[in-house]
């Protein structure tokens, strides 16, 4: 039996062991990401992993994406009209002037005589923490959230039975509670009262002296009522709907943060890559990442990872009923093996924080498996040689 094993093992045992080892290692060969066939089949190897939708980039896909604008500000802040009439807020300073038709009334003494312009200016006062101002003989008058005309009407109504044909003029002396703040990468940070005629985000930035630099590496955050949304500065220009009207107490913050994408897989350069421009296309992103490695990359397996709003995903033909989140994880696939695929790649606009992944060609995975098999066979032969040497030693003894 020992002699039989000794003669069989070198011929057959190494092969059997190599096949077994290769079968084990083929499930866990080193790689920089998922295999193309796993992505295209929609397979998620981790049962608890995030489900994604696979979309092949075609002319129909581009027709959908070309109609889609990333309306982050417009989507978050739906108010589409100017401020309109200005209203008082807590902290605003109010000027109140009371006119009477003749002297001898509540505010104009008798000795003043009859003359045009019988009026008295009350001391300027701030809207208090309760939202009120105080007018002699009229008491507390609600000011917060009301226009000057509304306050004037209430004061006149309260004085009409005591003063002589009273008329009242209410105006802003100083606005402190309803200002728009602009700060960050602007030339002159400022606070200003929003114009009733309407001012938009770009107008607010202009009031602050404009941006520093050319702007392609800047982002703009709009904060309103505890909610905030951020867009690249260029987005305000490319998609005018995002250039929304500012409102009192808005905060506009301009900050420097270059738009970037991540490149992984069979690319010449892996890691974080700056746009370096207002906008770039998928084809330009592949070029910035060093292109495909000729001996490794699969031109048909260029993938773009991105979250899309539910309405966009539905327009792409994705069954959104399987997803609960407002953003659907989508993996776009561009086939650069097809000559027409390069034209499609020039139409796909990259977005900030997109992920570009290029999978290895299947032949590369075969080569990896063969290399591991070669190592496994060599290891098996060495092991069997050691075993045979041991048997031979025992036989000699």
What does this structure look like?
The protein is elongated and about 140 Å long. The chain has a 6-stranded mixed beta sheet. α1 packs antiparallel against α11. β8 and β9 (190-193) form a beta hairpin. The protein has 397 residues and is an alpha+beta fold. It has 4 domains: 2-29 and 365-396; 36-67 and 260-360, Outer membrane lipoprotein wza domain like (Outer membrane lipoprotein wza fold like, Roll), CATH 3.10.560; 73-82 and 182-256, Outer membrane lipoprotein wza fold like (Roll); 93-174, 2-Layer Sandwich (wza like fold). It has helices at residues 2-25, 36-40, 59-66, 72-76, 148-159, 201-207, 233-238, 282-288, 310-315, 339-345, 362-396, and strands spanning 53-56, 93-99, 119-121, 125-126, 132-135, 139-142, 167-174, 179-184, 190-193, 218-224, 227-232, 251-256, 260-265, 271-274, 297-309, 327-334, 355-360.
What's the short version?
This protein is an alpha+beta fold and 397 residues long. The protein has helices at residues 2-25, 36-40, 59-66, 72-76, 148-159, 201-207, 233-238, 282-288, 310-315, 339-345, 362-396, and strands spanning 53-56, 93-99, 119-121, 125-126, 132-135, 139-142, 167-174, 179-184, 190-193, 218-224, 227-232, 251-256, 260-265, 271-274, 297-309, 327-334, 355-360.
